[in-house]
What we know:
Elements: E1 6-12, H1 16-23, E2 36-43, E3 52-57, E4 65-75, E5 79-85, E6 91-99, E7 103-111, H2 117-139, H3 155-165, H4 173-186, H5 190-200, E8 205-208, E9 213-215, H6 216-232, E10 240-244, H7 249-261, E11 264-267, H8 274-284, E12 288-292, H9 296-300, E13 307-312, H10 322-328, E14 343-346, E15 356-359, H11 366-372, E16 382-385, H12 392-404, E17 407-410, H13 416-426, E18 430-433, H14 435-443, H15 446-449, E19 459-462, H16 469-479, E20 483-487, E21 496-498, H17 500-505, E22 518-522, E23 535-540, E24 556-557, E25 560-569, E26 575-580, E27 585-587, E28 590-592, H18 594-602, E29 607-617, E30 621-630, H19 638-648, E31 657-660
Parallel strand pairs: 8-17, 10-11, 10-12, 11-14, 12-13, 16-17, 16-18, 18-19, 19-20, 30-31
Antiparallel strand pairs: 1-7, 2-3, 3-4, 4-5, 5-6, 6-7, 8-9, 14-15, 20-21, 22-23, 23-25, 24-25, 25-26, 27-28, 29-30
Amino acid sequence: xxxxxxxxxxxxxxxxxxxxxxxxxxxxxxxxxxxxxxxxxxxxxxxxxxxxxxxxxxxxxxxxxxxxxxxxxxxxxxxxxxxxxxxxxxxxxxxxxxxxxxxxxxxxxxxxxxxxxxxxxxxxxxxxxxxxxxxxxxxxxxxxxxxxxxxxxxxxxxxxxxxxxxxxxxxxxxxxxxxxxxxxxxxxxxxxxxxxxxxxxxxxxxxxxxxxxxxxxxxxxxxxxxxxxxxxxxxxxxxxxxxxxxxxxxxxxxxxxxxxxxxxxxxxxxxxxxxxxxxxxxxxxxxxxxxxxxxxxxxxxxxxxxxxxxxxxxxxxxxxxxxxxxxxxxxxxxxxxxxxxxxxxxxxxxxxxxxxxxxxxxxxxxxxxxxxxxxxxxxxxxxxxxxxxxxxxxxxxxxxxxxxxxxxxxxxxxxxxxxxxxxxxxxxxxxxxxxxxxxxxxxxxxxxxxxxxxxxxxxxxxxxxxxxxxxxxxxxxxxxxxxxxxxxxxxxxxxxxxxxxxxxxxxxxxxxxxxxxxxxxxxxxxxxxxxxxxxxxxxxxxxxxxxxxxxxxxxxxxxxxxxxxxxxxxxxxxxxxxxxxxxxxxxxxxxxxxxxxxxxxxxxxxxxxxxxxxxxxxxxxxxxxxxxxxxxxxxxxxxxxxxxxxxxxxxxxxxxxxxxxxxxxxxxxxxxxxxxxxxxxxxxxxxx
Length: 688
C-alpha cells in the first residue's frame, strides 16, 4: 500500500445489501459523518457510470471545503469509489465485505492532499463511531448515549453571554440601582424592560419611525400616561386590548402601557380579512381596540361595546388618538400589578383560521441570553425592525431591543430600497426581517443595491419561513456572512439558530440549539428516532407557550412541545426541517415532502420562486403539483422542469403537474398560502 493511502475498517451488524442503503446514498452521508456538511447529487447513477455530486466538508478545525465528486466505481451492494473532479488524485473508497453471521466489514481507503491531514486523522478515528451509528439506524434503535440535555444553560454561561452582549455592564451606581429596582418591581415584562432601560440610559434614542424619535425617558413617560388614559376608559388588570397596527412608536408604547396595566394584548395581523378580525374580536372580547386609521373601517364594522383608539391618525375617523389620550391623562406612574399582562400572538393561519397563542412572560434575563448566545447583538445597537411587531419575530426584536437598550428603527410599510436607504443613513447594526423581505432586497438591480453603504450592518436576522439553500448562498455572497436564520414557532418560541458558518457549511440548515434549549426528533410513539432518522421536531425551553386561547394544545412529550414540523439532526448536531407534518404527500406508497422538491426547483436557472402541493390522483392516491414563478425573460417548459427534477431527486418526487404563475399567494409575513393553490381560479399556464 502507498504511504499516502490511509486505511480503516469497522464491522456493521447487517448484511452488505442493507448497509448499502446508506453507503450508496451520498445525500445521507452528513447524517452519519460529522465532517461532511452535505452532499448534493447533480446526476443520478445511470447505466455504465456512477452518480455525480457536490460535497461540502466542514472539519472541526480548518476552513470549509467544497468539491465536485464522481463515483468512478459504483457496484451496488459492494463498492463505491468517490473521486474528485477534475483532481482524480483525491479519492475515497467504501467497500462492503460480507462476513459470517450476516455482518459486513466496512473497509475505508482514502487518499487526500496533505492539507487534509486533520480530516484524514478524524475519519480514521471515527470509522467505528460511524459503524455504530449505521448499526443503530439500520436496526431502528435510538442512541442510548445521545445527549438528552441539549444546550444546557448554567448561571455562569448565561452571565457570560449577557456580559459579552453588554446587557450586564458597569455604570453609574445610582442608574444601576434604579435599573435593578425597575426589574424588581415589574419583572422581566415589557413594562419592566423599558422602565429599566429608561433608568439606565434615559436620553438615548429608543424608537424611531417616519414621524417621530423617542428616547427611553419619553417612552416611559408617554406609556405611563397612556396606561392612565386607558384606565380612565375602563381598561384594567386582566382585561384585553387588541392592537391592529403596523410598526411605529405608538404601537410599542401601547405594548408598554398594556403591560403596566396588567392587560392582555391581542396582536391582530394587518393582513387579516374583515371577517377574520370580527371572529377574533368576538372570541377575545377586548375592552379596547387600538388601530391605525387604515383599519378603522374594519374595526367600525365589528359590533361591541369597546373603546376604539387611533394609533396612526391619517384620516377623520372620529376616534380619539393615542396622543390625545396621553395629553389628557395624568402623569402618575402606574403601580405594579399582581399579574403580568400576557401577549396573545395569532398563528399564521396558512392552513385555515388563525388561532390565538398565549405567549409566556420571560423567566428573567436568560430568555434574552438564549438568543444572544447565537446572534451577537450588543448593547446600544441600532436595530432596523422590518418584521411586523404583531409577528413573533418582530416581537422578539422589540424584546431583545429593550434588554440591550437598543435603538429600534421601525419600518411601517416595507419597501426594499427604502429599507437599504434607512440602514445606510442611520448606520444600523442589525436588520430583523422575514425571508420575503430579503428576497425583495435581492430582487433589486445590483446598481440600486450598490448605491447604499451597508458597511455598518453586522447582522441580518431572518425568521418566519424557510429560505432555499441557493438563496442563502446568494444573499451571503452579496452582503457578506451576516445572515442568521432563526427557526421557531409561535408555540415553542425558538428551537435553533443558524449562524453564518452553519449556513456556509449547510445552506438549508435550521442551525443549532441556543442556550437552554433542547431539540428531539421523535417518532409517532413519542420515542427518539435512530441516528440520522427523520421524525417530528419537539422542543424544550423556558418559553414554550401557555396554550391556545381556544383551549387546545399542540402535541407534547414530557417537557417537550411539537413544532408541527418533520426533520432530522445531522451527525454534527445541525437541525434540518424537511417540511410540515401535515404537508406530507403519499404518492404510490412513497412519502414525499414538498420542501426538497422546492429546493431543487429554485436552484434551476430561470426559476424565481416555487411551491409544491399534493393533489388527489385516482391511480397514485396523490401526485405532486409544482407552481413555478419564472424569472423575468426566462423561457421555461413543463417538460424541462420535470426532466431537471428527475436528474436530482427520486422518480416519485417528480411533479406530474407543472404550472407557471406570476406570483405565489402569501400572508402578511410572507408565508405561502398553499391552500389557495388548490383553488382552480388561481392563474396558471403550462408554458411561460
